Amino acid sequence: MSQNRYKLWMGPGTYCVPPELFALNRSRLAERLNSKEIPKKSVVLLQGGNEIPFNDTDTNYLFRQESYFMWTFGVLEEKCFGALDLDTRKSFLFVPRLPESYAVWMGPLYTLDDFKMKYKIDSVHYTDEIAEVLKNHGASVLLTLKGINSDSGSESKEASFTGIESFQVNNALLFPEIADLRTVKTDLELDVIRYVVEVSSAAHRKVMRMARPGKTEYQCESEFLHYCYSVGGCRYVSYTCICGSGPNAAILHYGHPGAPNDRFIQDGDTLLFDMGANYMGFAADITCSFPANGTFTSMQRLIYEAVLKSNLAVMTNGKPGVLWTDMHLLANKVLLQELKNGGLLTGNVDEMVKAGLAAIFQPHGLGHLLGLDVHDVGGYLDNNPPRPKEPRGAEKLRTARVLQKNMVLTIEPGCYFIDPLLDSALADPKLAQFIIKEEIERFRGFGGIRIEDDVVVTENGIENLTKVPRTIQEIEDWISGKDDGKY
Amino acid sequence: MSQNRYKLWMGPGTYCVPPELFALNRSRLAERLNSKEIPKKSVVLLQGGNEIPFNDTDTNYLFRQESYFMWTFGVLEEKCFGALDLDTRKSFLFVPRLPESYAVWMGPLYTLDDFKMKYKIDSVHYTDEIAEVLKNHGASVLLTLKGINSDSGSESKEASFTGIESFQVNNALLFPEIADLRTVKTDLELDVIRYVVEVSSAAHRKVMRMARPGKTEYQCESEFLHYCYSVGGCRYVSYTCICGSGPNAAILHYGHPGAPNDRFIQDGDTLLFDMGANYMGFAADITCSFPANGTFTSMQRLIYEAVLKSNLAVMTNGKPGVLWTDMHLLANKVLLQELKNGGLLTGNVDEMVKAGLAAIFQPHGLGHLLGLDVHDVGGYLDNNPPRPKEPRGAEKLRTARVLQKNMVLTIEPGCYFIDPLLDSALADPKLAQFIIKEEIERFRGFGGIRIEDDVVVTENGIENLTKVPRTIQEIEDWISGKDDGKY
Q1: Residue in B with minimal Cα distance to A244
Q2: What EC number(s) does this enzyme carry (chains A, B) (predicted)?
């Protein structure tokens, strides 16, 4: 048993997540749904996640809680259900009834009161009692979750239990409202996100000082993981670490099992490290790009400055009321203008954008919502702007929404030299007309630069939560051992 | 792209797994099946694993290959199939046909020839060609995998593809033979296992020196993970790390999401750290128990010596032809005798065993087969000794087999002070008669000791692959900074 038994906390030095965070989410959800036409005696019912075994074995992947359930109830254990009465706002948690013998293997079992104390849920029962408890409580309609995740195309897991057939079930009302609420963070949520972004920032700074020619990419990944866990109490990362060196920095999803960060870092390499910790479900997602040997070459300088200007343009212009698609377009234009200034491109930048040239250098969207999922939900709900078709590249955006106060997003423009895309551009007269071929050819094998910050939309602008060296001077100083205490 | 493109290798300093290892497994499988009555023109067909997303999101758990497929084909990528013609012994690999656009996100795509070169498979095709290729090859009967994993109770995933209905399928023949073959390791497999056990041993030694009062349990876990990955190239561990301190050392599956290694280590604590790296699928599984402050108390000394004697008794007596259940019984007897010598028990040891007292102190089995799964397969096949019923505790054994040369197992006796078990024993006159109550009560909250080694059965005995300080003197010396270079 740990001294943290009744806390969402990893001990001194780490952040204690208050259960009030989830109570506030429940209250927002009730308020939102009650403002709509919902059936009388409606109760929201969500099902949490289950542990997943490696294939047919008895060994499990390290459990990740389902995010809608986590957002609403803040419960870390598997195989639970949660319910929220929309009239009384009473909350219910249903936990699996474990045999006494589990205590031998899993430690002292939480009683129902333990769960109640830890998670501050009004009423805690066993999952085999759901039907009875909800019936006795007078629940008539269960609002369950059914909707498509617009990033994965997968459907949410709709709650189901023995006896559900004796209730009316409505699975249409809940999804759009809860997904929309998740896009705007409360101050309590922002505090956790600040924490996980700070831990991730510090870990990136540590990695910047240990990464160098002769190390292997995965040693940098390992350093990041170790810092986040041993210092920040973050047992998970939010996604598989991308640690691309040299040409691998142009592989957007590098680090996957078929390319597991296993290259030796060479002198002259650009490093692109995209890594983010996870704390109690909350995700960070940060990319730092820097020279392996600590000093930018003129080529690295050119591309880095271009991407940084693109990033800063969004940082300066983003605010409530602004369309994210416009920010994407702005970032594209700044990038192309800088590549033109640097002698890689020629012609009119607006025409380049119209022709789709931006997607050759940055085939991904500007950034995405961030929260309990690294690609957080609510990007394309029914009443939001639809996925754009123009300019080319914008269709990859994970949201096209109007920015609102307290949305948390990544700003992550990039510039990569990806052979098949360069080949296709050079073979397409509409694009090739803008490209100074011999200059572009010099950058084959260069890899790429991405500068990814985690930000929150404020009343009037954007606050950057990320605390890493960003200008060329800052990066070179940091790697050379200066500026301790600055971040 | 990495310089390891054509190798099962994480770069200099790590172990390069030869594809011949899997070719030899295929050859053993063909030989075994051909020695049975199998239909003519039979082809073994196995399906590899798929990546698993976190719930409905587009973010995946770090992929683990399915172990039967790995054993036979040695292929690390997801969504593959493999086939082995039992007449000609020709091997086939089927890989997913990825769109060209994947190259932008995943890096240069492997061609069929790349796969052929990397994995040394005779013939490589796309998965949409399985039916056609096998048909053209003259396959008549497909031998697919269907069987129950005796540790999880789950069924293996039987291969299935579009067009399988035009073949005769036999799912009865393959499972018992391949599962049985997996229990006996080849020298090529032993070399990988030696490597991953060495890396894990070195990581344990590192942790022994950094763990101390004031650290948190998970910081020890993090140190272990970091060493295994950054030094040994092991991106995975074989199971969730168990880092129990003080009373948590008595929780057999401590470290799970509900008890995530989050306790502060106290002066006087016993630490029980059960952690094992994984390299290219091959598992290590080692437990070290030691005092947090580096010096054994008399109580720790008593229990540690008892468990170590139990471990060494098996190490000395294990050899081909011996029943694993007899080794379990031997370990139990030595442990109870030592507890009796130490003044915790009284009476006749054989009678204690008969009454089931051993399972009060060691409620788990002596150890298990180890290989591509940490609880490796083949423990209870149809022609093996069945799961025992007596003495109490032995029913937890993951195998009751006769030891054979080149079986790899863990030897992991333990002694724990688990309140509900002590309570039940004290309340049961058949058990209570052996217990010196006031002595046992002193050990409440002590936690426990487990000493777990990874061993291989040799011609005449047992070889211990684990390289960690094991005697009390060795442990105290190591923690105090002596004996560098000894292991």
Answers
A1: B1
A2: 3.4.13.9
pTM of the full predicted structure?
0.98
pLDDT (average), residues B219-247: 98
Give the relative orientation of helices A187-210 and A20-34 as an angle to the nearest 10 degrees: 130
- From the centroid of its chain, how far is CA A81? 24
- Average pLDDT over every residue of A169-185: 98
Q: What's the one-letter identity of residue B427?
A: A
Query: Considering only CB atoms, which chain A residues are within 8 Å of B157?
Result: 55-56
Q: Are A196 and A279 in contact (CB under 8 A)?
A: yes
AA identity, residue B19:
P
Q: How many CA atoms lie within 13 A of B278 on its CB side?
A: 22
Residue B144, Cβ density class (10 Å: 0-12 exposed, 13-18 middle, ≥19 buried)? buried
The predicted model gives B18-32 an average pLDDT of 98
Q: Which of B76, B155, B263 sits opposite A257 (nearest CB)?
A: B76
Q: Which of A22, A213, A188, A35 is nearest to A118 (CA)?
A: A22
Q: Which helix (H) or strand (E) holds B223?
A: helix B217-230
285-314 in A: which are within 8 Å (CB) of B?
none
Distance (Å, whole) CA A359 – CA A332: 8
Measured in whole angstroms, the distance separating CA B66 from the mean position of its chain's CA atoms is 14
Helix, strand, coil percentages, rounded to 5, for chain B: 35, 15, 45
d(CA B409, CA B367) in angstroms, rounded, equals 7
Q: Which residues of chain B have a CB within 8 Å of the CB of A373?
A: 54, 57, 59
With CA atoms as reference, report the closest residue to A479 among A273, A236, A246. Answer: A273
* DSSP code at position B396: G
* Lookup result for tokens 């989050």: B262
Q: How far is A50 from chain B (nearest CA, A)?
A: 9
Q: How many residues does chain A have?
A: 487
Per DSSP, A22 falls in state H
DSSP assignment string, A260-320: -S-PBP-TT-EEEEEE-EEETTEE--EEEEEETTSS--HHHHHHHHHHHHHHHHHHHH--T
SS3 of B201, please? Answer: helix
Q: Which H helix or E strand runs over B196?
A: helix B187-210
Kindly calculate the radius of gyration of chain B based on its CA atoms and give it in whole angstroms: 24
**pLDDT of amino acid A180:** 98
- The yes-or-no verdict on residue A183 having pLDDT over 90 is yes
Measure the CA–CA gap between A247 and A411, rounded to whole angstroms. 23
Domain ranges of chain B: 8-183, 187-480
The CATH homologous superfamily to which domain A187-480 belongs is Creatinase/methionine aminopeptidase superfamily (3.90.230.10)
Give the strand pairing for A91-95 and A123-126: parallel
Reported ipTM exceeds the 0.90 cut: yes
Answer whether B288's CB lies under 8 Å from B304's CB. no
CATH-assigned architecture of domain B8-183: 3-Layer(aba) Sandwich (3.40)
Residues 41-60 of A with CB under 8 A from B: 49, 51-60
DSSP calls for A381-438: -TTSPPPP-SSTTGGG-S--PBP-TTBEEEE--EEE--HHHHHHHHT-HHHHTTB-HH
Over residues A387-404, the mean pLDDT reads 94
Tokens 């990320």 appear where? A466
The mean pLDDT of chain A is 97
Q: Do B222 and A223 touch (CB under 8 A)?
A: no
**Contacts with B53 from chain A: Cβ below 8 Å:** 152, 154
Which residues 200-229 of chain A have a CB within 8 Å of chain B? Answer: 216, 218-219, 221-223, 225-226, 229
Tell me how far CA of residue B205 lies from CA of A184, B189, B286, B289, B452, in angstroms.
Answer: 47, 24, 11, 11, 14
Q: Which two tokens stand for residue B296?
A: 């054994």
Per the rule left: phi > 0, alpha: psi between -120 and 50, beta: everything else, B233 is left
